[in-house]
UniProtKB/TrEMBL annotation:
<feature type="binding site" description="in other chain">
    <location>
        <begin position="194"/>
        <end position="196"/>
    </location>
    <ligand>
        <name>substrate</name>
    </ligand>
</feature>
<comment type="similarity">
    <text>Belongs to the phosphofructokinase type A (PFKA) family. ATP-dependent PFK group I subfamily. Eukaryotic two domain clade "E" sub-subfamily.</text>
</comment>
<protein>
    <recommendedName>
        <fullName>ATP-dependent 6-phosphofructokinase</fullName>
    </recommendedName>
</protein>
<feature type="binding site">
    <location>
        <position position="105"/>
    </location>
    <ligand>
        <name>Mg(2+)</name>
    </ligand>
</feature>
<feature type="binding site" description="in other chain">
    <location>
        <begin position="150"/>
        <end position="152"/>
    </location>
    <ligand>
        <name>substrate</name>
    </ligand>
</feature>
<comment type="function">
    <text>Catalyzes the phosphorylation of D-fructose 6-phosphate to fructose 1,6-bisphosphate by ATP, the first committing step of glycolysis.</text>
</comment>
<feature type="binding site">
    <location>
        <position position="187"/>
    </location>
    <ligand>
        <name>substrate</name>
    </ligand>
</feature>
<feature type="binding site">
    <location>
        <begin position="74"/>
        <end position="75"/>
    </location>
    <ligand>
        <name>ATP</name>
    </ligand>
</feature>
<comment type="subunit">
    <text>Homotetramer.</text>
</comment>
<comment type="similarity">
    <text>Belongs to the phosphofructokinase type A (PFKA) family. ATP-dependent PFK group I subfamily. Eukaryotic two domain clade 'E' sub-subfamily.</text>
</comment>
<feature type="region of interest" description="N-terminal catalytic PFK domain 1">
    <location>
        <begin position="1"/>
        <end position="363"/>
    </location>
</feature>
<feature type="binding site">
    <location>
        <position position="11"/>
    </location>
    <ligand>
        <name>ATP</name>
    </ligand>
</feature>
<feature type="domain" description="Phosphofructokinase">
    <location>
        <begin position="4"/>
        <end position="309"/>
    </location>
</feature>
<feature type="binding site" description="in other chain">
    <location>
        <begin position="284"/>
        <end position="287"/>
    </location>
    <ligand>
        <name>substrate</name>
    </ligand>
</feature>
<feature type="active site" description="Proton acceptor">
    <location>
        <position position="152"/>
    </location>
</feature>
<feature type="binding site" description="in other chain">
    <location>
        <position position="250"/>
    </location>
    <ligand>
        <name>substrate</name>
    </ligand>
</feature>
<feature type="binding site">
    <location>
        <position position="278"/>
    </location>
    <ligand>
        <name>substrate</name>
    </ligand>
</feature>
Length: 363
């Protein structure tokens, strides 16, 4: 059967295990020889015990676990051609020509580069006597299917990334807990949630927790936000509301591109309103815990679709990323989605908020 390997790379997220499980089982079901690559690209270029054959039962009892059981890592060496050469040798040695990568845009970019270099890497391996001419011919084409595991929902092309829904559950639970104590003491709470370049978690959290104000990276508030914020908080209190909630995305910025931190917001509130104001930074709690039903199903569907895409691929097929569009699992050109995701970040860096929001919206 065809050699197929699955690995997770970049930040972990809930639901990655469901995806790994689906890849392994769908692969075996379709007659492939399936491998795990542990610790992301690091494991791919270290080889050895890091690349092991998967069995049907080796993915039992992982669907409910958070994180990724096969490990994830950041790997500087894979950014160099010499690193990718080692990785190619390890794959050819095991007959792997199909890769499923579960990660963020960085991981997908690396995979795409690896594929575009594949034939020249094999050429070099033959030249240096590391593989045979027969191997070069037999494993001439590398196929790649990606899917996005990230709690941030920061990838253009998919409605939801794997892990976002679970993170939202975690955040909402934390806010509900805080609301009850805030209510008792008439406090103002500022919650910092994850999202370096993407305000999705912050926006959805704000909507579902009846927050009074939200700060996100894509849409900096008007310059007089301190006044607007305080007016809003006061107005809510004057109509009998006993608490205030403010959500701040990790990457929130003002119109000058300067960070709006939870601490900055607290200073504004305390100075102007003298309210008892507390900050909660949720941090990695958002990534922890069990995946939600949605993320488990999403991981399963994406994983199965990725394997099918690889099995149908021809040497000319573009690398794809498996995405959710409405309620459909779809395949989109990998690099196009990566480019658009990068364009959003670039637009934000250039303070072109309107463009950023537009690009982000085009999913
Ligand atoms: P997250 O969104 O969680 O940060 P990510 O996949 O974007 O996930 P990165 O740290 O950017 O995370 O990338 C993960 C790994 O992918 C890197 O450590 C590196 O090994 C590889 N990688 C990223 N970008 C490239 C690139 N341009 N060329 C080669 N490899 C890359």
């Amino acid at each position: 059967g065809k050699g197929l390997a699955v690995f997770t790379s970049g930040g972990d997220s809930q639901g990655m295990n469901a995806a790994v499980r689906a890849v392994v089982r769908m692969g075996i079901y379709l007659g492939c020889k399936v491998f795990f690559i542990k610790e992301g690209y690091q494991g791919m270029l270290d080889g050895g015990e890091n690349i092991v054959e998967a069995t049907w039962s080796s993915v039992s009892s992982i669907i409910h676990k958070g994180g990724t059981v096969i490990g994830s890592a950041r790997c500087l060496e894979f950014r160099e051609r010499s690193g990718r050469l080692k990785a190619a040798k390890n794959l050819v040695d095991r007959g792997i020509t199909n890769l499923v990568v579960i990660g963020g845009d960085g991981s997908l970019t690396g995979a795409n580069l690896f594929r575009s270099e594949w034939s020249s890497l094999l050429e070099e391996l033959v030249r240096t006597g590391q593989i045979t001419k027969d191997q070069q011919t037999k494993y001439a084409h590398l196929h790649i299917a990606g899917m996005v595991g990230s709690i941030d929902n920061d990838f253009c092309g998919t409605d939801m990334t794997i892990g976002t829904d679970s993170a939202l559950h975690r955040i909402i639970e934390a806010i509900d807990a805080i609301v009850s104590t805030a209510y008792s003491h008439q406090r103002t709470f500022i919650m910092e949630v994850m999202g370096r370049h993407c305000g999705y978690l912050a926006i959805v959290t704000a909507l579902t927790s009846e927050a009074d104000y939200v700060f996100v990276p894509e849409m900096p508030p008007p310059r007089d936000w301190p006044t607007k914020l305080c007016d809003k908080l006061e107005q809510e209190r004057s109509t009998g509301q006993r608490l205030n909630i403010i959500i701040v995305a990790e990457g929130a910025i003002d119109r000058d591109g300067q960070p709006i931190t939870a601490e900055k917001v607290r200073e504004v509130v305390v100075k102007n309103l003298q309210q008892d104001t507390r900050i909660t930074v949720l941090g990695h709690v958002q990534r922890g815990g069990n995946p939600s039903a949605f993320d488990r199903v999403l991981g399963c569907r994406m994983g199965a679709e990725a394997v099918m895409a690889l099995m149908e691929a021809t040497p000319d097929t573009e690398s794809c990323v498996v995405s959710l569009d409405g309620n459909q699992a779809v395949r989109l050109p990998l690099m196009e989605c990566v480019e658009r995701t990068k364009a959003v970040t670039k637009a934000m860096e250039n303070k072109d908020w309107e463009n950023a929001v537009q690009l982000r919206g085009k999913s």
